[in-house]
Specification:
Strand content: over 45%
Strand order of the largest sheet: 3-2-5-6
Shape: elongated
Distance between the termini: 9 Å
Number of domains: 1
Number of helices: 0
Helix content: under 10%
Largest sheet: 4 strands, antiparallel
Structural class: mainly beta
Order of helices and strands: EEEEEE
Number of strands: 6
């Protein structure tokens, strides 16, 4: 991934209402988006300079958590990207 470019993060919304999206680097979280309507099936993420340099070299994954209910925040699924990636300038 390259800073300044936009990438689609996609999922299937089987029985969920909302999705939280997080970048994980060696399990250290960097929130990307919270409470995205799951029915959209995707989120377009523009990688910004705000992403700290610690996230640039390998070991990055996208973590998704799906919720069944907006009101009670029941977590029903968790998934992550299929492979690790780096962020470059």
């Amino acid at each position: 991934m390259e800073i300044g470019k936009t990438y689609d993060i996609t999922w299937q919304a089987n029985g969920i209402q909302e999705v939280d999206i997080t970048l994980l680097h060696d399990l250290v979280p960097y929130p990307i988006a919270r409470r995205v309507p799951a029915t959209l099936g995707k989120y377009s993420w523009k990688v910004s300079d705000i992403v700290n340099e610690q996230y640039w070299i390998g070991n990055n994954i996208i973590d998704l958590i799906g919720f069944t209910s907006i009101a009670d925040g029941d977590k029903v699924f968790r998934d992550e990207s299929d492979r690790v990636f780096s962020i470059t300038r």
